[in-house]
């Protein structure tokens, strides 16, 4: 990224005043895709559990809760913990089935919210567990790709360093720290997954904002996971106001 362009576009953004917390600036917003920008997670989990059942896995309420909490994490760890009896080929078949039947569309108002942040000097990055071709295709289809400075995909980090490992966030923030003197306090990661996104942000030392537009993970779930109420928003549509952009 051109440093002079970045600095020329920088403006000071502040959170709404919070008791006992100093105002901060946010120059970088990093967004998860599925469940954050794109409506996909609820039906993906439904298809996933249905396919597990077809492979002989008993779907208990406890297992469904854990699948939901851990959705988007490293596939190998997911498989090892919950259904080690399934072959890698069976898991691949399940994910192919999800890709074939789940319609992926942006939540309403995503482009407007992203444009508002960009127009007010915020640089936008994406970080997803999706493969590059699929991620860029869906962003391009809905006119969102052009709004991102960079999108980090599974190929950029490798399966063993997918969420909740911090490599993806480090790939975004490391160069900005080195070339522009960016502090991680000036960045925020926005996501919808507890074990994938929240833990990834914690591992990288980056502030986290939880969204719950699909309500797969609810506001109550986020509070139980330890996310501050001030860092929970319904939708990416609420991010500009959170940043102090009106």
Task: Briefly say what this structure is.
With 246 residues, this protein is an alpha/beta fold. It contains twelve helices and eight strands.
What can you tell me about this protein's structure?
The chain folds into 2 domains: 3-39 and 106-243, Rossmann fold (3-Layer(aba) Sandwich), CATH 3.40.50.1000; 41-101. Helix 2 (41-54) packs across helix 5. It starts with a helix and ends with a helix. The protein has 246 residues and is α/β, with parallel strands linked by helices. The strands form 2 sheets. The protein has a 6-stranded parallel β-sheet, with helices on both faces. The chain has a two-stranded antiparallel sheet with strand order 2-3. The chain has helices at 3-9, 41-54, 61-70, 75-82, 88-101, 110-119, 132-141, 154-157, 167-180, 194-204, 219-224, 239-243, and strands at 28-31, 38-39, 105-106, 123-127, 150-152, 187-191, 207-211, 232-233. It contains 12 helices and 8 strands.
Any chance you could write out the topology, listing elements then pairs?
Layout: H1 3-9, E1 28-31, E2 38-39, H2 41-54, H3 61-70, H4 75-82, H5 88-101, E3 105-106, H6 110-119, E4 123-127, H7 132-141, E5 150-152, H8 154-157, H9 167-180, E6 187-191, H10 194-204, E7 207-211, H11 219-224, E8 232-233, H12 239-243
Parallel strand pairs: 1-4, 1-6, 4-5, 6-7, 7-8
Antiparallel strand pairs: 2-3
The helicity comes to 40-55%
Instruction: Give the oligomeric state of the chains in this entry, treating copies of one chain as homo and distinct chains as hetero.
Output: single chain
Q: What is the fold-level CATH name, i.e. the topology of the largest domain?
A: Rossmann fold
Name the poorly predicted regions.
Answer: 1-24
The CATH homologous superfamily of the largest domain is named HAD superfamily/HAD-like
Shape: globular
Question: How is the main sheet built?
Answer: 6 strands, parallel
Category from helices, strands and their pairing: alpha/beta
What's the arrangement of strands in the largest beta sheet? 5-4-1-6-7-8
Tally of individual domains: 2
Strand content: 5-15%
- The ordered string of helix (H) and strand (E) elements is HEEHHHHEHEHEHHEHEHEH
CATH architecture of the largest domain: 3-Layer(aba) Sandwich
Alpha carbon gap, first and last residue: 27 Å
Q: What's the CATH C level of the largest domain?
A: Alpha Beta
């Amino acid at each position: 990224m051109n440093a002079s362009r970045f600095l020329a576009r920088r403006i000071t953004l502040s959170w709404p005043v919070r008791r006992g917390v100093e105002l901060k600036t946010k120059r970088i917003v990093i967004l998860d895709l599925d469940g954050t920008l794109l409506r996909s997670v609820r039906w993906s989990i439904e298809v996933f559990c249905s396919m597990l059942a077809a492979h002989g896995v008993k779907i208990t309420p406890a297992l469904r809760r854990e699948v939901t909490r851990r959705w988007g994490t490293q596939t190998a760890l997911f498989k090892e913990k919950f259904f080690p009896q399934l072959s890698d080929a069976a898991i691949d078949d399940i994910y192919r089935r999800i890709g074939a039947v789940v319609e992926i569309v942006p939540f309403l108002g995503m482009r407007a919210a992203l444009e508002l942040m960009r127009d007010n000097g915020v640089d936008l990055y994406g970080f997803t567990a999706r493969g590059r071709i699929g991620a860029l295709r869906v962003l391009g289809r809905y006119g969102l790709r052009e709004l991102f400075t960079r999108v980090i995909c599974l190929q950029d980090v490798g399966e063993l360093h997918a969420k909740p490992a911090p490599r993806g966030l480090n790939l975004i923030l490391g160069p900005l720290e080195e070339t522009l003197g960016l502090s991680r306090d000036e960045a925020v990661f926005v996501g919808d997954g507890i074990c994938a996104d929240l833990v990834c942000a914690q591992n990288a030392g980056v502030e986290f904002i939880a969204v719950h537009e699909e309500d797969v993970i609810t506001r109550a779930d986020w509070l139980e996971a330890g996310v501050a109420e001030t860092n929970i928003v319904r939708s990416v549509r609420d991010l500009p106001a959170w940043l102090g952009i009106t």
